[in-house]
Design goal:
Strands 4-3-7-8-9-10 form a 6-stranded mixed beta sheet, with helices on both faces. A two-stranded antiparallel ribbon has the order 1-2. The chain is globular. It is α/β, with parallel strands linked by helices and 194 residues long. The chain is 30% helix and 31% strand. Helix 3 packs across helix 4. Bound molecules: guanosine-5',3'-tetraphosphate and sodium ion (2 copies). The site of guanosine-5',3'-tetraphosphate has 21 residues, from strand 2, strand 7 and helix 5.
Amino acid sequence: MKELHEKIIQDGKVLSNDVLKVDAFLNHQIDPPLMQAIGEEFAARFKEDGITKILTIESSGIAPAMMTGLIIGTPVVFARKKKSLTMSDHLFTSSVHSFTKKETNEISVSKDFLQKGDKVLLMDDFLANGQAVLGLLDIIEQAEAELVGVGIVIEKGFQPGGAMIREKGIRVESLAIIQSLEDGKVTFANGESN
Ligand code: G4P
Ligand code: NA
Ligand code: NA
């Protein structure tokens, strides 16, 4: 997606050979017109699929998921990383290990908001090792809901998550796929670079 590639080149910061900082428009400050364009793009890619619900994970998946839900007209549910006071045993839970942060978190979704019969678009801001996506897939299975596909804003193609999820036969749509962050330079899978 051209607009997103341009934004990454303009405002993204390469922190190391494997980490891209996008605090200026996605992970801290949020760019609403860009999120709207992202929502329109996902809505267009999944318009034939009869989606009834979008599932993401707090916090940075919420903004792009929200705009996509607004445009396709479905609710957006985000998995919580900490149990809220008002949530009890009426939950689907899964554990998500972060290789980056070297920690495992229990994620949860209320049984009220994901059910058998739902056709789910799973979304997240980044796809790196794919562990968050695996945890959300586990929750979709527990709910006996149907997965339609996975929508990712930025996929790091040099990390194993994308291949691992696609090998399961799952449709993954990533709006930007980064092939390399070597030498402080962003190179996209389509060959563009800064
Ligand atoms: P995985 O789910 O693909 O296995 O990802 P991993 O454990 O490697 O990532 C842990 C967190 O770091 C996730 O955010 C993920 O979105 C984010 N992340 C991974 N690679 C990058 C990167 O290159 N740049 C940035 N900016 N983030 C990256 P999180 O902890 O869930 O945070 P948030 O959603 O609250 O922002
Ligand atoms: Na995330
Ligand atoms: Na993140």
